Amino acid sequence: MEDVLVLKDYKTVPDIVHEYSPTLKFGHIPLVIDNGSYQCRVGWSINDEPNLIFKNLIARPRKDRCKKDAEPPATPPIQIGNDIVNIEAVRFQLKTQFDKNVVTHFEAQEQVFDYIFSHLGIDNDGSVPHPIAMTEAFVTPNYSRQLMSELLFEGYGVPGVSYGVDSLFSMYKNDIGDTALIVNCGYHTIHIIPVIRGQVIVDHARRINLGGSEMIYYLHKLLQLKYPVHVNAITMSRVEEILQEHCSIALDYQEEIRKWANPDYYEANVKRVQLPYVQTASSSGLTAEQQKERKKEMARRLLEINARKREERLAEDEEQLNQLLAIKDMIEDGDTDEFNEAIKGFDIKSYEDLQRQITNIHMRIEKNKQRIVAAATAEENLETRPTGRLNPPTEPEAFQTWLNETRSKYRELVARREARRARRAAMVKRRTAAAAERMRVISRLAAAGDEFGNQDSDWDAYKSISREADSDSEADGERLMELEEALREYEPPPANSSQHHQLHLAIEPLRAPELMFQPSMMGNLEAGLAETMEYVFKHFSPEDQLLLANNVFLTGGSSQFPGLKERLERELLEMRPFQSTHKVVVAKNPSLDAWYGARDFAGSNEFENWCISKEDYYEMGGEYLKEHYASNKYYKSPAPIVDNSLAPSIDANVVKEEIVVDC
């Protein structure tokens, strides 16, 4: 059995403000931004690693409504990226600048840029004096690029910007040649991009609208439906951790499902994930004998307390009795005035009231004396009194048999009680079988006339229609309490409560990533990864197909699932011709290779030639793009079509007259 896995519940660490050294400030060093829909990676082109890596998320908390009406509501600060320490606390207030993998919300993008430039320490007034190499989605719409360039040039005053595709940067960083079939598995989409001899064949590239986010949502729903008791504990962050660390892609999904149907295989391979829970207070480490002694001691103390109270009450009653007898002696001696004065303090109105109170106190004193004697006898018999009516055997096998019999008797009594209660409830209702049977018996008894009751069997019919006959007997209630007490005392303690807060991951770690190949599992009508690759192959000649199949390049964060490379090799073996070759290459660092490739691109001598300057922006427009080996192709947006059919027609026969009005 595999050990229990513990969730780490990663907490982000807020980013520091980096030093803006003179080398950076006056050296015209390019800034590299890999603007991904899951993570944003930012750094200088002269550094080996990015300075900032954070999730592209913005949390805008709601306004804090003050108790005092005079004070305006305080607006809490906006949290961006790693400043969001507890992401689940603001899950429903998160916002991103992306729609799928395309930037559409530029107000949020501006806030992300503010976060980037402030944490890099850039302190120039009103501008960012560094050219920027920035990634964008494959075939980004011109309108999105136009707004991005407008924000950078007019909002931040950058001297130049160059756009590139993240998957192409990753391909050239891994140096796998100029011909490849790129499979970019992202957070929202999967792109299949054919590159032949350095040229991106845009017409035959395809996109699948599915990525890591859909896998997280799908796994989240699977686990919540499987464990409805732990709905609140199964958060999106924990599901994301499970997906990243414990999920893999099956080589043959159907075969894996058949394996998991075997109980032995399930027990040997299931992954148990421990959810956080509050440990219940542990019981005292006393043995059964010590607990019995403790109960006896508590009973003895209780008897002593009750005996002390009875003695105090007896002394008070005897003192009050002596006072009342003294008052009675006054009336017998003829002291009427003293008698009338004395009875005022005891709320006595007459001699008869005095006699009645004396009698009541006499009776109360006798009862207290009897109780004191009974309590003393009970205390003497406390040591010899049996602890219960059920004494289990001492041998282990006989004890287990006795315990099983006690459980069955307890269940039988409970079932009998529930059946009686159900019968009583059914008899009260009119349209039930029990009520109908009761009415039939009553009608038969009414037909019997005066002869009913002469035979003993007649009373059985009376019992069958009596509602009180099904009431719980006192003997059954006592027996049930006795069995319950015995089970509570002798039944073994329950298992560790931590097992009730565990997730058993069986087929789920394989089922969620399988969406890449079978999107229909979550209702997506698009083709899977293997089908789309086969469709792309069909658009090329056999020679080009062979070149692409021999260099299938996997990149992107969602390509890091174990087993993805082997699964693609198996799919290629099935779709490619007999005895043809194929090869799948995985990026060295699927998440960071795009930034590394953009860094090398920004550090090259020709980087400035591929940048759009501010003059180019004003002359060519914001959608303009200088093409290079890792960029999108630039297609100028067509001029807007003017429809003159809706314009009012001008009649040539209309005579225009000029009217002069004298004021």
From TrEMBL:
Subcellular location: Nucleus
GO biological process: DNA recombination; DNA repair; regulation of macromolecule metabolic process; regulation of nucleobase-containing compound metabolic process
CDD domains reported for this sequence: ASKHA_NBD_Arp5
Keywords associated with the record: Coiled coil, DNA damage, DNA recombination, DNA repair, Nucleus, Transcription, Transcription regulation
CC per GO annotation: nucleus
Cytoplasm as UniProt keyword: no
Family to which the UniProt record says this protein belongs: Belongs to the actin family. ARP5 subfamily.
Subunit structure, as described in the record: Component of the chromatin remodeling Ino80 complex.
Name of the protein described by the UniProt record: Actin-related protein 5
Provenance organism: Spodoptera exigua (Beet armyworm)
